[in-house]
Amino acid sequence: MCTWHRLIPKEQMDLLTYCRNLPKVELHAHLTGSLSDDTVLQLLEAKEKELGSKNSLCSAKITISKGHQRSLDECFRVFELLHSLTDSLEAIRKITQNVIQEFAEDGVRYLELRTTPKNILGKMTKKEYVDTVLEAMINEMKTCRIMVRLLVSVDRGRGVEDAWSTLSLAKQYLDHDVFKGLLVGIDVSGNPNKGNLADYIPILKEAKKCGFKLAVHLAEVKSCVEETDAVLQNGLVDRIGHGTYLLDNNGYGINNQDMILKHHIPIEICLSSNVKTESVSSFEDHHFPVWHALKHPLAVSTDDKGVFSTTLSNEYYICAKTFNLSEKDIHELCLHAVEATFLPSSDKDILRQMVKDDLSKLMGKLFLGRMTTNTLKPSTVLEICTPKELS
User: Fold this and answer.
1) Which residues of 24-54 are buried (b: 16+ CB within 10 A; e: fewer)?
2) Residue 110 is inside which H or E element, if any?
């Protein structure tokens, strides 16, 4: 039986502050795309020193300074810029540390970073790249209140041969003396208009045999209908990235919906990313409420928090405000994200308890009226369920 508390409106904190105080789980964060503007500017300055020209990257600085006002074209230019700035192991170490610190400061208790290993002649091998990311993760977990794990990314635009190479590299970390347990899965991403996911099915099957969990970007664009069906029919997906057109009204979405619901495949929800990239026209037209109404496991995520100038707190805020979520809804989202992690059961138990404890403390602050401004839902008195009853 759930224990309910009635709170009068004036005793509730404002929604954004509330979201910042939530113990959050981030499951869809690309490392390079998550760089804050401050970190990018630091990298730009370092690159200028390397090039010996103080103002050689002036136009790039202007684009970065626009922040959330960047146009879609400017966002894509930022992606290109980021890849050119992260061409040394020292840069990889720095960005990994900064990104983890920023997520921790935003109240993220668990982070799954995903990144495509780089092989740059004379500068780094794929293995050196992954080792550097993992070393930075370990160092940051010693000082930040956050658990971090890694997914190595298969870029569908680089071809099947490169994907096999990435999987071969990932296998080396399954029983690694230092890094064992930190690389928990494979991400399949990249330009959805390049390649065909069906060609990668043998690789995904091999990854599953090795024990890797799979997070796959699916149905990002309408043209991905057939490949999405093929991957889902093979039962290869542990989490779905985006899934924007899984529910397309051409009839295709009906079979997929039944399969996804039957197997409780979590969907990573990236609101700002989907609107900014114009895969959906507005927050109100997003597919989140359809799946939420079906009580399907969803993980609110950022995708590329730096490029799209957002935070996980902001994504929760947008979600709660747009779809009129209650505190119980928000808490359930936090806990569903815990269950969707690629952690082994023992680590997941620790994380689940951490999140529940933090939710209890947050409810205590609300109930005692220690943080008071506006109401979460201005015209109503909310019912708050104690976190221990939400599992």
Assistant:
1) bbbbbbbbbbbbbbebbbbbbeebbeeeeee
2) strand 108-115
DSSP state of 120: B
pLDDT for 174-231, tens place per residue? Answer: 999 999 999 999 999 998 889 999 999 999 999 999 999 999 999 988 888 788 989 9
> How far apart (Å, rounded) are the C-alpha atoms in residues 107 and 312?
9
What lies within 8 Å, CB to CB, of 278 at 6+ separation is 72
Q: Where are the beta strands (DSSP E) in 130-207?
A: 147-155, 183-189
User: In angstroms, rounded to a whole number, what is the distance separating the alpha carbons of residues 263 and 233?
Assistant: 12
Cα–Cα distance measured from residue 197 to residue 223, given in angstroms and rounded to the nearest whole number: 12
The 3-state DSSP class for residue 150 equals: strand
Q: Give the span between the Cα atoms of 114 and 185, in whole angstroms.
A: 9
Taking CA atoms, 362 is separated from 13, 144, 329, 369, in Å, by: 10, 20, 15, 11
Check 220, 315, 327, 332 and give the catalytic one. Answer: 220
Is 220 known to be catalytic? yes
Beta carbons of 238 and 264 less than 8 angstroms apart: no
Pairing status of strand 183-189 against strand 147-155: parallel
Q: Label the pairing between strands 298-300 and 383-385.
A: unpaired
- Binning the chain into helix, strand and coil, the percentages to the nearest 5 are 50, 15, 35
Q: Where are the alpha helices (DSSP H) in 200-302?
A: 201-209, 225-233, 252-262, 271-276, 288-293
Q: Tell me how long the chain is.
A: 391
Q: Is the pTM of this model over 0.70?
A: yes
Q: Report residue 27 as tokens.
A: 């499951």
C-alpha–C-alpha distance, residues 236 and 28, integer Å? 18
Beta bridge partners of 183: 150
Residue 295 corresponds to which tokens in the numbers above? Answer: 């009580």
Please report, for the chain, how many H helices and E strands are present, in that order: 15, 10
**What CA–CA distance (Å, rounded) separates 364 from 374?**
17
Domains belonging to the chain, first-starting first, are 18-33+90-353 (3.20.20.140), 34-85 (no CATH)
Among 127-141, 244-258, 280-294, the least confident range: 244-258
Closest CA to 60 of 79, 87, 35, 86: 79
